Amino acid sequence: LNETNGSTLRDRSGNQRDGVYTPGAGTLQLGQPALAGGTAVDFKSGALASVSGAQFNRWEDFTVSAWFQADSVSDAPQMIFGKGDPSTGSPNFALLASSAGLLWFVGSEPEFASDAGIVEPNKAYHVAVSLATAGDARVARIYLDGQVVAEQADPGFIATGVNEPLFLAAFQGAVALDGTLDDVQLYDRALTKAELGTLYQNPGQPLAASVEPGPEPSDTALALSAAQWSGAGFSATLITEAGVNYQLEYSVSLELGSWSVVSNFTGDGSVQTVEDSDNGRNALPAGYYRVVVN
User: Fold this and answer.
1) How far apart are CA 101 and CA 119, in angstroms?
2) Where are the alpha helices (DSSP H) in 183-274?
3) pLDDT per residue over 22-58, tens digit each?
4) Residue 147: CB atoms within 10 Å
5) For the chain, how are helix, strand and coil distributed in percent, rounded to 5?
6) DSSP character string of 221-271
7) Tens digits of per-residue pLDDT, 105-136?
8) d(CA 73, CA 70)
């Protein structure tokens, strides 16, 4: 949230998941003193920021974290972040703060909460919610300043695949935060306690990605002459060697084990083009391709 003017909330990760600031009936003040680094944004009386839900419609496990500071704390809940369709009247999920503590809502019902009184006015906190859904490890956790302050085993189902906006500071004007937000980060997995501690200890810095190394060096030269992506899909043109096997692979994250095979082909010693027109991959906001010599 480092913007100092305009209405666009810039995605600093490079994934082009920009959002929009909407003052509504409230007020927005960009370029405020940072809670975590750069600058922060002050929200009042229902002002909010939102990001299209299409950017996050494939998540199962996830983590959302942010730095926040409330101007005041009372019985009235204030939303730090949430996701949902405002026309339904309740969020898909939301993290709220009040004198009752930090509260995790799914739909219109609170699922679990921290102890009361852990949030004080005019004090900056790092908060996060992680959701793990795999097998026996199903658990949701709320973190405050790197420490688990509440958790729920076998949490309720959250339809994270639904194309609904992600909101910051208010749910279309309701449960509004009067205060400041900074350094909102989203991950498509449940971060560990150690990782959340790292985020808290390093304000404004994302976790370093675990990037899978490329294949072992080959005696075969790979001459890639052109690569492009459009609405019709991805294509790469390369100079191949006759009889050599090539493999086009795709990843959404560059993380270890994330590469999947798109196609295999054998070189014929000429300039060849390999393509990917899969509708599912083309609909994603970002992705990575590589050509491997087998």
Assistant:
1) 6
2) 193-201
3) 999 899 999 999 999 889 999 999 999 999 876 665 6
4) 12
5) 10, 45, 45
6) --EEEEEEEETTEEEEEEE--TT-EEEEEEESS-BTT--EEEEEEE--SSE
7) 988 888 999 999 999 999 999 999 999 886 66
8) 7
Give me the DSSP letters along 102-152: EEEEETTEEEEE--TT---TT--EEEEEEEE-SGGG-EEEEEETTEEEEEE
**Distance in angstroms (rounded) separating the CA atoms of residues 35 and 159:** 31
- Quick one: which of 70, 273, 278 has its CA closest to 175? 70
For the record, the structure tokens of 126 come out as: 């790092």
Residue type, 80: I
**Structure letter (DSSP) for residue 88:** G
Burial class (CB in 10 A: 0-12, 13-18, 19+), 25: exposed
Alpha-carbon torsion (132, 134, 137, 138), positive or negative? positive
Q: Is-contact 68 125, C-beta < 8 A?
A: yes
